[in-house]
Amino acid sequence: MSGAAIVADLAGLPPLRESLAAHGLLAKKSFGQHFLLDLNITRKIARLAAVGAGDHVIEVGPGPGGLTRALLETGARVTAIEKDERFRPLLEELTAVCPALGLVFGDALEVDEATLTGDAPAHLVSNLPYNVGTPLLIKWLTRPWSPASLTLMFQKEVADRIVAAAGDEAYGRLAVVVQATCHAQRVMDVPARAFTPPPKVDSAVVRLVPRADRPAPELLKALERVTAAAFGQRRKMLRSSLKALGGETFVAAAGLDPQARAEVIDLAGFLRLAQGLRPTPG
What we know:
Elements: H1 3-10, H2 16-22, E1 35-36, H3 39-48, E2 56-60, H4 66-73, E3 77-82, H5 88-97, E4 101-105, H6 113-117, E5 123-127, H7 133-142, E6 149-155, H8 156-163, H9 173-181, E7 182-190, E8 195-196, E9 203-210, H10 217-232, H11 238-241, H12 247-253, H13 267-277
Parallel strand pairs: 2-3, 2-5, 3-4, 5-6
Antiparallel strand pairs: 1-8, 6-9, 7-9
Helix pairs in contact: 3-4, 7-9, 9-10, 10-13
């Protein structure tokens, strides 16, 4: 089916607010749900994701399907993972007019994305539920399966932490792990009033493209361990926060000042620390 044919089919669907009302659906606070119903915004997110006809997209938390519709309009093939069974009838109405949409009902934290994509590349595009956004991101960046790109909406505070540089107030473990594996860019801000119901905070869309030189799995595990220790006691000097890993000698061997704090160490410095932590072969 061509992209143009998909647009024509979707044009006959009722507005999202009408669909929600017809099914008696409200956002569930326990699932961190805030619906994005403005198709102008969802279409912009789809454009920023740079997906098109023939691309495979995985979307987590489609809810009523606002972003899903925008992705389908590009001609992409979409697999939507939804935990909330209340949305099954509404989303199945969408699959009835658009065979390019596949549905998986379950917890995205437990889904093996490789089984959904096979050997083909897939892009992740999602307005992530607030309560699982960070755990999902870490899962996608540290597991064997790797997406072709990630265009994800987070709370603004989390987006700030993802793109922060050494010395920034928001800089921490999340920035180091993300930027070790991806090129990260904040590409769009979305005010709270754009959502139904409005959250208490604004949101932002971050675009991540996996790095060709991303660390090998062993080094990535070491990086997670080093950053957990360093930022777990971020106000302490490295010689103290990393005492259990070797302290002053370990830090100096990485070419870093043992009296420095984690917040001023850049990605290259943390990678040297992780390299020093890895066991020597044999």
